[in-house]
Amino acid sequence: xxxLYKLVIVGDGGVGKTTTIHSIYDYxxxxxxxxxxxxxxxEPSVPTKSVDRTKFLDFHVINLIQNNQKIVLQVWDxxxxxxxxxxxxxxxxxxxxxxxxxVKNADLILLVFDCSSNSTFNELFRExxxxxxxxxxxxxxxxxxxxxxxxxx
Length: 153
Fold this sequence. Notes:
This protein is α/β, with parallel strands linked by helices and 153 residues long. The protein contains four helices and six strands; from the N terminus they run βαβββαβααβ. The chain has helices at residues 17-31, 94-103, 118-125, 130-134, and strands at residues 2-11, 36-38, 57-66, 69-78, 108-114, 144-149. The N and C termini lie far apart (43 Å).
């Protein structure tokens, strides 16, 4: 039997969403040494400490084995850079067009902000911010976690 879990990570650009995914992987790799990590390019990957900005959307798969049962964790990493609401190309923002597909049926949504930058927290909850972007597409029983990142800065 195979268990499948879907995790969606959203937040402003540069808050450490991709690095958070790598930290999750590092933890799981330590706890479950036989786990594997694949990127949206479907190539085995070993997360590095050097991270490029996510382009549009990145998809990761972490395969775990626990008690002879396969557990698959899909991690959807949404690009944090968005056009400002008054920008001429706001309607072309790719996030606005794929969010429903990505967020629907998620088992967990992580809203991430950078502790050293108040604006990244404000961006989550401003009008038409990241919370407003995802909230129409999840139900009341879907857990949402607020993650304060870069606490070491």
